[in-house]
Each structure stands twice: as structure tokens, then as C-alpha cells.
Amino acid sequence: MTAAGPYDRWPLGRGFERYYGFLGGDTHQYYPDLVRDNSQTEPEATPEQGYHLTPDLVNKAKAMIADAKQVAPDKPFFLYFAPGATHSPHHVPKQWADRYAGKFDAGWEAYRQRVFTRQRELGLLPATAELSAPDPDVADWETLPADERRLYARMMEVFAGFLEHTDHYIGELVQFLKDLHEYDNTVIMLVSDNGASAEGGPTGSVTEVRFFNNVADTVEEGLARIDEIGGPTVFNHFPWGWTHAGNTPFRRWKRETYRGGSSDPLIVTWPRGIAARGEVRSQYAHLIDMVPTVLEALRIDPPTSIGGVTQSPIEGVSFAHTFDDAAAPPGTSPSTSRCWATARSTTTGGAPYVLGRERRSPNPLTSSAT
Fold first, then answer.
1. What was the pLDDT predicted at 83?
2. The Sulfatase N-terminal domain covers which part of the protein (predicted)?
3. Which of 76, 92, 138, 190 maximizes the CB count within 10 A of its CB?
4. Closest C-alpha to 138, from 112, 161, 159, 115
């Protein structure tokens, strides 16, 4: 996949009419590798001029929607909005990170417990839910030197600011739909692609490329550059203590098959089509279920052929039936809903992990490993 092509796997080659964004992972939020349609392009401003990728993507998305509605006001539109946030590097203007100064000084264990309590209060988890055990790879916050706690707290402040910054600009996009009187009749699905990432390692990182070369960052370097964290001169990522806390109440993280790595919340809003407001649904669904859900909501049968090209059968199952029925059965088959049971069945570091663990169980069963 190069600037000279082939382009069949680029967005315009896969059915989109317009594209603006990045095609690779880990893109820089201040100096992103940008593509417009089938051509590489440069950011329209610099960090010193206030440039950041997220508002740039929002502005381009609004312009594309406006163009589409101006040309064909009655024609539906589909927008796939995929920011680099809150993927690493955790880049955000300092004033956003500073809003969270001191909020994480109590450490990741205290934060994890606070989040778990709040999740149950909000009904996101049942009252009988159990918090998974502390991870043996995560250091006890209270045993860390004061300088390390200061560094790690700042890294989380930056991430929290990054998340709020993202939320703010997604809100701008939603408000734009309201201004166009399109919001009530637009299905919006908001989901992450995986659980929180542990690529910052045990000490966090200000140069994450080291992770991909199996070279650990040092606390000393992080402390020396603590005031740069979140800015354009570093490629920062928080330590995996915050990763574990970010995946509350689950175990582990991205790149592993535990629920902390593979389970994500999904938010769906469609004011004209969903009567329920602010309710929780606990049915299991998969990303491949999103397309059949949209098709069912629009009362469209999946096409068998497009432009003379025979289409592969859709493998997902609609979950539209859960929109107005909290007690509805999940649409996924038992084999799909149990795909979580792929955790290692070997002994790693002396700890046995076995298949067949109940989905609601917070900890592995005790068993002989094979």
C-alpha cells in the first residue's frame, strides 16, 4: 500500500466516495500521515498554530456531510468516523490535561475500585458483579517511589484530557447533525476497537517505538520529559497499571484474549427509531453484527450482488431487536457468544489458565494446565 497504489484496498476502492484521514496505526496527533481520497497530503497547520488531528477530522467530516446534503438533501449518508484518539500516542493540548491535575494521585488500585463502584451504581454491571483480582504484573501503587507515582499520575492526567478532548469534538459533530436537523433520524454507533493497551509497559513510555523493538523505557527519561508529555515532542503511553484500571472490571488488556482485551462498550443512539432513552443492554454482540443491525433498522435486505459482483453472505446477526427490549435474547449464536473462551490453556509464569471458565467469573479456575 503505497502512494503509487494499488488503491483497491484504500477506502475509495472499498466503496467510499470520499476519504480523509490516516491509513496506518499509531499516527502522530500533531504530525499525522494523512491521505485525502487517493493522495497523500499534509496537515493544514502546525502544532504551534493549534493543529490537532481530532478537530481536523471532525471539520472534514462536517464538510463532507454538508456537501452531501447540499447536493442531495433527501439522500441518506453513511459516515465512518475513526479518529486516532484515544490510541497512542496520547497527545492533547496541555490545558486539557491540566483539568485532571491531582485526580489520579491515589493510584490505579483506588481508581479501579472507584470505577467499579460507579459502574454498579449506574447499572452498567449487576449488583452481584465481582471485581477481578489485582493483576500480578501490575505494581502495588503504595510501594512505588514518590517520583514514579508523580510520573504515572501525570501520564494518566494526559490520557484523561485526551479522552475528554475527543468527547468534546465528537459532541461538535453530533451538534452539527442537530443543526442540520439530521440527528433524530441518524443511527450513531460509538465503539472502541479493543480494550485499553499495555504497550506502555510497566513504566509507561515517552518513546513508544521502543516497545516495538523490545527496548524498555526508563523512569528517569520519563521524569526528565514529564512536562512534554502530551505534546508534539514525545510519543507517550501510560504504564499498564492504568491499562488494567481502564479495563475495569475485567482482566488484562489489548493483544490478549481475556475480556479486558476484547470487550468494549457500545453506545447506540437513534432518537426517531429507538424509544428507549439512557438504558443499558447486556446482550452480547460482535462488531460483525453492526452491518446487519443497520440493514434491519433501515428495512433493507442484504444485497446479493453489487455492480454485477456477487456479495459474500453476511456473517453477523442483527441486534436491532434489543433496542426496545432489555430482556431480548442476544442475536449471536452460542458459538459466537462463547468466543471469549480462547484464553491460554498453558502455564505461563507458573499460573494455569484453562478453557471453559464461566463468562461471569472474574478469575481463572484452579486446574492442571496442559
1. 96
2. 13-298
3. 92
4. 112
| pLDDT value for 1 | 63
295 in a domain, yes or no?
A: yes
Give me the domain span that covers residue 31. 1-84
Which pLDDT score, from 0 to 100, does residue 209 have?
A: 84
Residues of the chain with pLDDT under 70: 1, 332-370
For residues 111 and 157, membership in a common domain is answered with yes
State the CB neighbour count (10 A cutoff) for residue 54. 21
| Residue where a domain terminates, one of 54, 84, 114 | 84
Q: What's the predicted TM-score (pTM) here? A: 0.89
CB of 32 within 8 A of CB of 84? yes
Cα separation, 57 vs 49, whole angstroms: 16
Cell for 290?
Answer: 453492526
Strand runs (DSSP E) across 115-232, as ranges? 188-191
Residues 142 and 25 in one domain: no
Report the distance separating Cα 296 and Cα 316, nearest Å: 12
Predicted local distance difference test score (pLDDT) of residue 129: 95
Q: How large is the greatest C-alpha to C-alpha distance in the chain, in angstroms? A: 65
In a domain, 279, yes or no: no
Nearest to 240 by CA among 264, 210, 260: 260
Q: 128-164 pLDDT, tens per residue?
A: 999 999 999 999 999 999 999 999 999 999 999 999 9
**Dist CA 35 CA 41 (whole Å):** 5
Task: Please tell me the predicted confidence (pLDDT) of residue 346.
Answer: 34
Q: Count of residues for the chain?
A: 370
Asked whether residue 332 is domain-assigned, the answer is no
**Residue 356, domain member (yes or no):** no
